[in-house]
Design brief:
Helix content is 51%, strand content 17%. By secondary structure, it is α+β, with helices and mostly antiparallel strands. It has two domains: 121 residues, Hemerythrin-like (Four Helix Bundle (Hemerythrin (Met), subunit A), Up-down Bundle); 152 residues, CheC-like (Chemotaxis protein chec, 3-Layer(aba) Sandwich), CATH 3.40.1550. The chain is built from seven helices and six strands.
Length: 296
């Protein structure tokens, strides 16, 4: 497997202790990635579980240290940040239990895709705001859900991944979403929201390279890790948008993500009430369909 460097110096938040812990987390995820990508499944099961156990305990300690820093500094988004931490700990614990009960490289690869994407988005989009005391969710007004989703997406692409958005367009859903790889996220709470992301192949590969530090060298693109990373990215975008729409944390919402490799349309979606956003960048295109799908 090619050398991986998940940690980048631009991920530093400006606190020595927290930056050192972040580097260790990324290093351990790299080690887990090496185990998942190579070697005999049976021989590596114990090592996988040991690494996962470490990640669970270390993540708990790291979050406690990070939240203590926020308390000392009177961080403006402490409550929201702590809830995001609790949600992620529950996700990791659920994966740990699944791996213990029924170990497979496929499950491990899905975990890795989730870990890599969540870590980069959280460190860049949330943690780097702590020392500067910037809110996670800025107190700004949006001209409806379309404008909100557009701003959330542009912020993630530019601030987290350095992808310049050249222009955006809004149109009524035409019955299908264009792209090469499609991620559907259903967010359930008091209402059900459907998001369908259509990534051009260049956009999907660029995002994965920025998340993982790895190139795309295999003919099975996207593999289990790559699929999981793209689904997690879609979940983060959809969850943030829904939390802003409802003006509350997305904690407690249920979500389901799927990935498709052919043009996707959903006969259950009301074309007349569904909005399509089109983002053109230097790294390809992204289309996002969003609609309200009724009560859960």
């Amino acid at each position: 497997m090619e050398e991986v460097r998940l940690w980048k110096e631009e991920y530093r938040i400006g606190d020595g202790e927290i930056d050192a812990q972040h580097r260790e987390l990324f290093r351990r995820v790299e080690a887990l990635l090496a185990v998942a990508m190579t070697g005999d499944e049976t021989a590596n099961q114990r090592e996988c579980l040991e690494l996962l156990d470490f990640l669970v305990s270390y993540t708990v300690r790291h979050f406690e240290a990070e939240e203590a820093l926020q308390k000392r500094q009177g961080y403006v988004s402490y409550d929201l940040h702590a809830r995001i931490h609790r949600d992620f700990k529950n996700t990791v614990l659920a994966y740990q239990e699944k791996v213990k009960k029924d170990f497979s490289r496929e499950t491990l690869k899905k975990l890795l895709g989730t870990l890599m994407t969540w870590l980069t988005v959280h460190v860049c989009g949330c943690d780097r705001k702590i020392v500067k005391n910037l809110p996670i969710a800025p107190d700004i007004s949006f001209d409806g859900a379309d404008d909100l989703i557009r701003r959330v997406t542009v912020q993630l692409l530019t601030d987290t991944y350095g992808i310049q958005v050249n222009c955006t367009r809004t149109s009524v859903y035409k019955g299908y979403v264009e792209g090469k790889i499609f991620v559907r996220i259903i967010i359930g709470g008091e209402k059900n929201y459907v998001f369908l992301f259509g990534f051009s192949d260049e956009m999907a590969q660029t995002l994965y390279r920025k998340v993982s530090g790895m190139g795309i060298r295999n003919t099975s693109w996207p593999n289990a890790i790559e699929k999981s990373a793209l689904i997690e990215l879609g979940d983060i975008l959809a969850s943030q948008a829904v939390s802003y729409i409802n003006q509350k944390s997305y904690t407690g919402l249920q979500w389901k993500g799927d990935l498709f490799l052919k043009e996707y349309s959903d006969p259950c979606i009301d074309i007349s009430k569904s909005i399509l956003l089109d983002f053109e960048t230097d790294c390809g295109r992204l289309e996002i369909l969003h609609c309200l799908a009724g009560k859960a």
